[in-house]
Amino acid sequence: MIQPHDRSAEATRTTAMALIAQYGGDASTIAMLRAAELAAVGDVDGLAQWDEIIAFILLFEEDGPAGPMH
Asked: For residue 35, what is the DSSP state?
């Protein structure tokens, strides 16, 4: 059974991978811009989600196509 946290992790991964597929090496920059937009309007929850997406992208870039191994 999928727990809410699992869905959140899967959504983070799916979003990060979509950004990587679309923007390649610029994916983290695009994600940071989105996070900044959310911070500017005070969306703390949205910012937290995008911070997780950014972290995934950075780990993916660091670890290569195998992605984060945690």
From this structure: H
Torsion of Cα atoms, 40 then 37 then 50 then 22, to 10°: -170
pLDDT tens-digit readout, 41-69:
999 999 999 999 999 999 999 887 655 54
C-alpha 8, offset from chain centre = 11
Confirm if 23 and 30 have CB atoms less than 8 A apart: yes
Residues 6+ apart with CB under 8 A from 67: 59, 60
Give the angle subtended at the CA of 53 by the CAs of 68 and 41, to the nearest 5°.
165
Tell which residue, 18, 32, 20, has the closest CA to residue 62: 20
pTM exceeds 0.85 for this model = no
